[in-house]
Amino acid sequence: MSQTELSEIGEFGLIERLTRDFDPKNDSTIQGIGDDCAILSFPADKEIVVTTDLLVEGIHFDLVYCPLKHLGYKSVAVNVSDICAMNATPRQVTVSIAVSAKFTVEALEQFYEGIRLACRAYNVDLVGGDTTSSMTGMMISVTAIGEVEKGKAAKRSGAKVNDLVCVSGDLGGAYVGLQILEREKYVFTQTGSQSIKLEGYDYVLQRQLKPEARLDVVQKLASHSIVPTSMIDISDGLSSELLHICKQSGVGCKVYEEKIPVNVETERVAGEFNLLPLTCALNGGEDYELLFTVDLNSYHKLAMVADVRIIGNICDASEGSNIITRQNERIPIVAQGWNAMKDK
Amino acid sequence: MSQTELSEIGEFGLIERLTRDFDPKNDSTIQGIGDDCAILSFPADKEIVVTTDLLVEGIHFDLVYCPLKHLGYKSVAVNVSDICAMNATPRQVTVSIAVSAKFTVEALEQFYEGIRLACRAYNVDLVGGDTTSSMTGMMISVTAIGEVEKGKAAKRSGAKVNDLVCVSGDLGGAYVGLQILEREKYVFTQTGSQSIKLEGYDYVLQRQLKPEARLDVVQKLASHSIVPTSMIDISDGLSSELLHICKQSGVGCKVYEEKIPVNVETERVAGEFNLLPLTCALNGGEDYELLFTVDLNSYHKLAMVADVRIIGNICDASEGSNIITRQNERIPIVAQGWNAMKDK
Predict the structure, then answer these.
(1) In A64-103, which positions are buried (b, 16+ CB within 10 angstroms) versus exposed (e)?
(2) Sign of the torsion formed by the C-alpha atoms of A28, A46, A163 and B13
(3) What are all long-range contacts of A12-18, with beta carbons under 8 Å and residues at least 24 apart?
(4) Cβ count near A105 (within 10 Å)
(5) Pairing mode, if any, of strands A46-56 and B38-40?
(6) A interface mutation test: which of B81, B141, B234 has the most A CBs within 10 A?
(7) What distance in Å separates the CA atoms of residue B266 and residue B204, rounded to the nearest whole number?
(8) Which chain A residue shows the shortest CA-CA distance from B152?
């Protein structure tokens, strides 16, 4: 494939080329890319939610094993995940990138192809951004905007004593997927060996490289008239997010080890690295599942929502935040999170 | 002053320390920092405008001569300027930064002090952001959100034949201010001389280091019931912005050299560098003044708006986009812009 230097087409040419085929689909997008600002208009009964994330090469992603298309997809997905964590529907994103001269136009087109796929998957419009050069490496800044019925936004602070603690999907997969990628990168850089072993790790690699925001869960909760009392997305690990909810709600929690969902492949791969699956679920980040609490009265309705499990309950702050092990031991939850684990 | 390493207080500690004293002031801000998203709510008769900018150390700013407090102020001001360019009122900003370990907590507090001053000056709320590490240097991503009465957003595409072309303030100052800073940096790095000469350059240095968004002009236009037919802020130089309006409106323009406002200090400093003041005004960027067009009927009302000058008029596209010199020569306007000049 022929490669085009960024300098050949200039900033305006580049933006035009990268952002074609991004026609707005949402009624709330009045005007997208091409002016000083995008123009949006939301129904009077909606509140707007806004979130933003910064992704830095060498800190948040490694282009050695993260294809640019996946990176584009993930950049949007992780922001959409924050919108979902408010019980809201994503509508618009802006994407800004800084890249060094080593990137070609074709490489950036791959990145924007990932952006485009994510925009389609979550039905969001790309409405703006900025494209600039960097001295070294790549940086990505995404802002996402969503809407939610007035008063129905799920904050971290709304959990009440006796609420049920729920989680979507399964946990720890993205973390062990990262261990596989790091191991194979190490083998490659140390030995130059081309025999990268990624077979048999499909699920955990996908969890790491192409995480999905759980918009489907938000929609299912709405269709069963379940309004979470609190919600957060699991980007730093279950422990850290549980503590956020407990701290901001002024409550404690009991979560049962046996209830925490871990995929069978995640368990197997954790074993390869001599890691406890529970540790990966509690402290491994980037699963982007939803952690939320619901009123006890929603118990029967919850049973009809696929791919959501009740893992414990909210209790008084005086009881603390604890994991109850299979041996019925009570272990205080400690924030560790993804970054801390990575430094080990 | 004692200095605190970033690693000493951790990410959550840092965010808490940097974002205290940022209580929301606007009715439209329902919830600011501290959850997965900010929550906003706007009146039913308003449209929302959104813009975002990425600023990279070594590309957009030089910490050798740009104090962090000024940089914080400018980061917000340039985004507010884009909101103003839509004829809108800024309401919220998010600010994300990536910094290397060389930055101290106290240095970042200086940066956020600048953010705080700008938020006060323009009455906007800081409602979110992201703080992360970078491998090298500093990167800043700001998103600004504003509101405008439905249908009153000023696009680049609305200029009509016979409209008056107007500009606020004066032009070229930020560019010659940058020349002063680059000259003194050169002297300092080449000779180690501490005798930096910045006296007598107050105006142009302020234009470069602490530009202001012209929210006052937007407010004055509104108070005189003037709705611009098109508008853009001058970030890349008058030439480039005139061509944006003409291209997107499908029109041409005639702009008169003698009408283009240049400050007397800008003229003097341009002379020091053997630059034509007109060249600085046309191609020097970062003045963040407003360029806009109004219907001929607004002529008398415009006279009551201080600090705004009529510099020409819109004509048919077939006549092209031209500068009429003091010698009555017609010179086609060419996009050159700030980046192109900087590479020279």
Answers:
(1) ebbebbbbbbbbbbbbbbbbbbbbbbbbbbbbbbbbeeeb
(2) positive
(3) A14/A105, A14/A108, A14/A131, A15/A131, A17/A105, A17/A109, A18/A108, A18/A109, A18/A112, A18/A131
(4) 18
(5) antiparallel
(6) B141
(7) 6
(8) A39
Chain B residues lying within 8 Å of A92, measured CB to CB: 50
Over B3-52, what HEC string results?
CCEHHHHHHHHHHHHHHCCCCCCCCCEEECCCCCCEEECCCCCEEEEEEE
Residues of A in contact with B35 (CB under 8 A): 86, 155-157, 248
| Region B222-231 average pLDDT | 96
Do strands B164-168 and B308-315 pair parallel, antiparallel, or not at all (unpaired)? Answer: antiparallel
CA distance B209 to B114: 12
Cα B107 from Cα B152, distance rounded (Å): 41
Closest chain B CA to residue A291:
B36
Q: Which two tokens stand for residue A140?
A: 């990505």
Q: Which helix (H) or strand (E) holds A142?
A: strand A139-149
Probe site for chain B from A82, A141, A142 (most B CB atoms < 10 A) = A141
Cβ burial, residue A260 (10 Å; 0-12/13-18/19+): buried
Q: Which domains does chain A have, with CATH numbers?
A: 6-149 (3.30.1330.10), 164-342 (3.90.650.10)
Residue B236 forms beta bridges with which residues?
none
Enumerate the residues of chain B whose CB falls inside 8 A of the CB of residue A126: none
The whole-angstrom distance between residue A157's C-alpha and the CA centroid of its chain comes to 20
Inspect the interface and report whether the beta carbons of B36 and A137 lie closer than 8 Å: no
Q: In terms of CA atoms, which chain B residue is nearest residue A39? A: B49
ipTM value for the complex:
0.92
pLDDT over 70, % of chain B: 97
- Whether A195 has a pLDDT exceeding 80, the answer reads no
What token pair was written down for B131?
């703080």
B residues 43..82 contacting A (CB < 8 A): 44, 47-54, 56-60, 82
Across the interface, do A52 and B150 touch by the CB < 8 Å criterion? Answer: no
> Residue A65: pLDDT band by 50, 70, 90 thresholds?
confident
Q: Which residues in chain B are closer than 8 Å to A31, comparing Cβ atoms?
A: 153, 155
> B199 vs chain A: nearest CA distance in angstroms?
32
From A36, A98, A233, residue closest to B54, measured CB to CB: A98
Look at B36 and A127 and tell me if their CB atoms are within 8 Å. no
Task: Please answer whether residues B325 and B257 qualify as being in contact, where contact means their C-beta atoms are separated by less than 8 angstroms.
Answer: yes
What pLDDT digit, counting tens, does each position of B155-196 carry? 999 999 999 999 999 999 999 999 999 998 888 888 877 777
DSSP output for B170-198: -SSHHHHHHHHHHHHHHHHHHH-------
Poorest-pLDDT segment among A194-208, B71-85, B296-310: A194-208
Mean pLDDT value of segment B39-56 = 96
Contacts of A60 in chain B (CB under 8 A): 132
The reply to whether B291 touches chain A by the CB within 8 Å rule is: no
| Overall size of chain A counted in residues | 344
Q: Inter-chain contact B53–A135, Cβ cutoff 8 Å?
A: no
Please give the Cα distance from A300 to A294 (Å, whole number).
11
Q: Where are the beta strands (DSSP E) in chain B?
A: 29-31, 38-40, 46-56, 89-99, 125-133, 139-149, 164-168, 230-233, 252-256, 290-294, 308-315, 321-324, 330-332
Going by DSSP bridges, is the β-strand pair A125-133/A230-233 parallel, antiparallel, or unpaired? unpaired
pLDDT of residue B244: 96
Contacting A residues, span 246-285, partner chain B, CB-CB under 8 Å: 248
Chain B residues touching residue A52 (CB < 8 angstroms) = 94, 96, 128-130, 141, 143
State the pTM of this model.
0.93
Structural tokens at position A56:
């830095």
